[in-house]
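Per your request, structure below.
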């Protein structure tokens, strides 16, 4: 099967399936990769999403705002202000050579006679679509390459969906990203690379390179031969046998490095990473920490220096408010030997194991910028205060939330990587500061769930749920720019064609936001309606047809929604605890959970035929029980009056997708989580 790690594609010679249960990796036209046509195989045309407009940011200046997918790291070219590289969470590595283009600077950057026009934006080129995996965690320039064409990148699983493609370890390019070589494959394959630091240091055998991974069998690695091989330092000397969440160098001392190790604190090396010492004096709360972040201020002109450390823990505040949050912020004025705590700190949210960024101010040794799930802030150690640098703190502009990485561009603006792509804070130290999006044609959006992608065949329009960028849809057929439809994390979607109208069912974080958007055959919105999900006895009471646990559910939860193959007014809705059936577009629903057991639904097929006769009530359902151990099961219902029967002969793993033969429902196929396909020809008696 395929993995859709970024973007969507449509076969120009055929019809896109209503569902893509897996995610498809794109092949793009460029000299690096040539794909020759094969007879009988249709050409594919990219369908995006690229820029997603009218997003979920705090910015009200939509002229400068657009969303993309999650970006984990940024590398700024040392001398060319327009050149940036980004490492996307599930979209690979991309490059722009006109990052300095802006719609806020009143300059004619593209020399077309106009200033700050809508098209004056960076353009992005993908560099790694040919690689086996696109899940990235780090990227950095090599300071020893005078041509500035050598970069290192590290793979890793950093998605908020906790999903990734093959993890290709540590990569190097020596031609600006045109080609890539994997380094030390046996060392870093399947590791989550948090930091890669090619240093300016050399040994008789080559360059010193440091790498940090967050895996328990990872931690700190060091190469003294330019990356040909690495030695794992964690578990030896003074370094604990544990993963690390950040490793950084000191700009004013090429021999000095710092690493944050959860549950152990901060360690420092003063000999190029060969040896490490713990530097926790004054640092508290690192026991049990899930993440330790680091930043260094070094202004050689002013002679100022400071190191900052952030400690994040899992915290439960009750009332379903819990997660990984900032619990301690510290500053050291003596290169980490001792630390002073901030008495006050902002609330950065509860996703800190993934969503946290920190950057020391370039000019003021007492100011550090931090960001997380809940925005971004400037914290002042001198006054022990903090203030927002988005929304009202940035002239009513803002970036997408869920921040992952901060750095400076060559003009002193702050670049931010987050779940909405890449953004720039112009004039960060000034009251005139403003945010602008740099996403434009950056196509790294993650499609969120098995049942997220749908196709309106009446209007030739794709719409889909995305990770933290809502449910989005094409404006016009074939466009890669998408329009925001529903906020939050986009979820499962569904299309039903009834005569000359299409019913697009969309939802955000969960089924409580389920709506149907009705369009005519000219792709014009007729109306939007809330899907009630009520009990037949109380049709005006929303969600009254659901179990109490589902009624009270308020977080993100992937739902499964499947249309009946024969009746467009009927569909099934699977939640975290039940399976519901509707005969009237979701206005009222009935609980038909197989076996009545505690389970998680993963795959459904609904409605079939036999000998030319419609059998709309047939359901195959694939579940995994919430028992110990969890057990994959298949269930079958053959009539509306009948009950589900477990198909005991099925011995596959977790069902991913189920399909019935369109002419005989008794013939069915199951794709399981181990990429095996199971077939029955007798309604599940044998497989």
């Amino acid at each position: 099967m395929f993995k859709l790690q970024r973007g969507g594609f449509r076969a120009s010679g055929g019809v896109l399936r209503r569902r893509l249960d897996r995610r498809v990796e794109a092949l793009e036209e460029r000299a690096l990769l040539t794909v020759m046509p094969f007879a009988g195989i249709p050409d594919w045309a990219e369908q995006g999403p690229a820029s997603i407009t009218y997003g979920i940011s705090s910015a009200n200046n939509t002229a400068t705002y657009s969303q993309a997918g999650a970006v984990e790291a940024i590398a700024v070219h040392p001398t060319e202000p327009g050149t940036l590289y980004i490492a996307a969470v599930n979209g690979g590595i991309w490059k722009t050579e006109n990052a300095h283009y802006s719609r806020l600077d009143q300059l004619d950057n593209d020399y077309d006679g106009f200033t700050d026009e809508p098209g004056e934006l960076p353009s992005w080129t993908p560099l790694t679509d040919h690689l086996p995996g696109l899940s990235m965690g780090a990227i950095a320039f090599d300071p020893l390459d005078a041509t500035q064409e050598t970069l290192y990148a590290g793979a890793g699983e950093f998605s908020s969906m906790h999903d990734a493609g093959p993890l290709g370890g540590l990569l190097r390019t020596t031609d600006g990203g045109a080609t890539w070589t994997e380094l030390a494959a046996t060392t870093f394959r399947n590791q989550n690379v948090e930091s890669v630091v090619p240093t300016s240091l050399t040994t008789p055998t080559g360059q010193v390179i440091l790498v940090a991974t967050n895996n328990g069998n990872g931690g700190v690695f060091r190469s003294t031969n330019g990356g040909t091989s690495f030695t794992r330092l964690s578990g030896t000397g003074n370094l604990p046998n544990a993963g690390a969440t950040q490793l950084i160098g000191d700009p004013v001392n090429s021999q000095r490095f710092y690493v944050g190790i959860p549950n152990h604190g901060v360690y420092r090396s003063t000999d190029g990473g060969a040896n490490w010492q713990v530097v926790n004096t004054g640092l508290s709360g690192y026991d049990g920490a899930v993440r330790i972040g680091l930043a260094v201020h070094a202004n050689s002109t002013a002679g100022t220096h400071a190191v900052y450390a952030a400690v994040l823990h899992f915290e439960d505040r009750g009332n379903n408010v819990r997660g990984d949050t900032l619990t301690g912020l510290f500053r050291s004025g003596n290169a980490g030997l001792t630390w002073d705590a901030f008495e006050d700190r902002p609330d950065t949210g509860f996703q800190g194991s993934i969503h946290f960024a920190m950057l020391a101010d370039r000019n003021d040794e007492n100011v550090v910028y931090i960001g997380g799930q809940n925005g971004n802030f400037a914290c002042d150690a001198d006054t022990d205060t903090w203030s927002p640098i988005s929304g009202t703190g940035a002239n009513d502009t803002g970036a997408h939330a869920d921040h992952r990485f901060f750095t400076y561009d060559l003009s002193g603006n702050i670049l931010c990587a987050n779940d909405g792509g890449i953004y720039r804070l112009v004039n960060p130290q000034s009251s005139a500061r403003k945010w602008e999006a740099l996403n434009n044609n950056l196509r790294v959006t993650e499609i969120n769930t098995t049942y997220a992608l749908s196709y309106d065949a009446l209007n030739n329009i794709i719409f889909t749920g995305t990770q933290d960028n809502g449910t989005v849809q094409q404006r016009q057929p074939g466009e890669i720019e998408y329009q925001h439809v529903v906020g939050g994390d986009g979820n499962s979607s569904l299309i039903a064609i009834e005569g000359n109208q299409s019913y697009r069912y969309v939802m955000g974080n969960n089924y409580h936001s389920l709506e149907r958007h009705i369009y005519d055959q000219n792709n014009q919105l007729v109306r939007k309606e809330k899907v009630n999900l009520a009990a037949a006895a109380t049709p005006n009471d929303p969600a009254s047809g659901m179990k109490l646990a589902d009624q009270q559910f308020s977080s993100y939860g992937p739902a499964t929604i499947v249309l009946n193959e024969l009746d467009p007014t009927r569909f099934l809705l699977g939640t975290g605890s039940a399976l519901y059936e509707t005969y009237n577009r979701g206005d009222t629903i009935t609980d038909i959970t197989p076996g009545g057991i505690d389970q998680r639904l993963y795959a459904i097929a609904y409605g079939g035929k036999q000998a030319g006769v419609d059998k709309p009530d047939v359901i195959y359902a694939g579940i995994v029980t919430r028992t110990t151990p969890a057990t994959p099961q298949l269930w079958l219902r053959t009539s509306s009056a009948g009950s589900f029967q477990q198909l005991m002969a099925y011995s596959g793993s977790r069902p991913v997708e189920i399909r019935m033969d369109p002419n005989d429902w008794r013939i069915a196929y199951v794709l399981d989580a181990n990429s095996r396909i199971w077939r029955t020809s007798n309604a599940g008696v044998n497989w």
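The radius of gyration is 26 Å.

Regards,
D.
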